[in-house]
Amino acid sequence: MSSLNKSNTGSTDNTDSHSGSGCLNKLDRDQVQSSLAQIIRSLIPRNCSRYQYRFCELLPQPNVLGFCSDPQPFTGKVVFLNEVFILVKRSQTRNQFVIVDVAYVDVMPKLNDQVEITPYARHDFNGRRVDEPEKEIQTLPDGTQYTVTKMMLGGKSITLPLPISKEQLQSPELLALIEQLENIPAPDGFRLISHLLVDAGTTDFTINDAGTLNTDTPPGIGFTVSNQKFKGKVAIVYDRGSDTYSLRLYPATDNQPTEVDNIYFDELGLRLAEAIDDFAWQVIRVKTL
How far apart are CA 258 and CA 220, in angstroms? Predict the structure, then answer.
């Protein structure tokens, strides 16, 4: 691809610490907790000696089992807010509160507003949440059928929407690339690369299934991206000689295509984020009811 501008480094350096940036803002939990008791004291009934709270941040923290679950939307009343966090008293509770990170809210509510908060959650290519329950119909030996509902909490990988099934692939290198895209973590540590691709709005996946005997045409995978960061075609191509990947970017505009070479498999998430992640997923949605 002699027409491509080549580089062996990423082309974007995101250093902002606000919503929509590549550098994730970390809420100072110690600072929040130090002031929480005094704030909540006047917000609970006198005969209520205890209160409960949890944090609503862009990326959830691991639970006691060591994995992160995608947070669910919730409703409540804004009972306190400042430049750091919003304190929401959950609907139909006396002493349950949620601390919402201000850095990632799309709309700043007002005190006493009734709100619905929708945190970021990972999704599949079909638009469904990764933890959305799935129903399967099982059949007993006597022919009786029953429905089983399954839900996967935390760390669920998703399948790339390829034009053919993995079982039909001839190239082991292409199969390895697909499995890496589906299972390697994205730079943020919560998502996988496949979730990054969903959030970037990738569609129209194609493959180049060069078999083991075809050394002239390298195996690779392509897709279309259309977001604020990049619009055009993207290809990830395997180089058998160096055992690395090349990331080829073909903008929909008249701009010259570019190529990022010598990408090792554990760098795929970082290089893809630098090239196509517009960080529009970094938002906690606030709706006033």
Answer: 16
d(CA 245, CA 240): 9
Return the number of other C-beta atoms located less than 10 Å from residue 53's C-beta: 17
Q: 242 CB contacts (<8 Å, ≥6 apart)?
A: 262
pTM for this one?
0.83
- Among residues 209, 117, 128, which one has the least CA distance to residue 163? 209
In whole angstroms, give the CA distance from residue 77 to residue 89.
5
Sign of CA dihedral 60, 76, 288, 124: positive
Q: Are 281 and 24 in contact (CB under 8 A)?
A: no
Q: What is the pLDDT of residues 234-284, one digit of tens each?
A: 999 999 889 999 999 999 987 788 999 999 999 999 999 999 999 999 999
CB 258 within 8 A of CB 249: yes
End-to-end CA distance of the chain: 54
CB 115 within 8 A of CB 288: yes
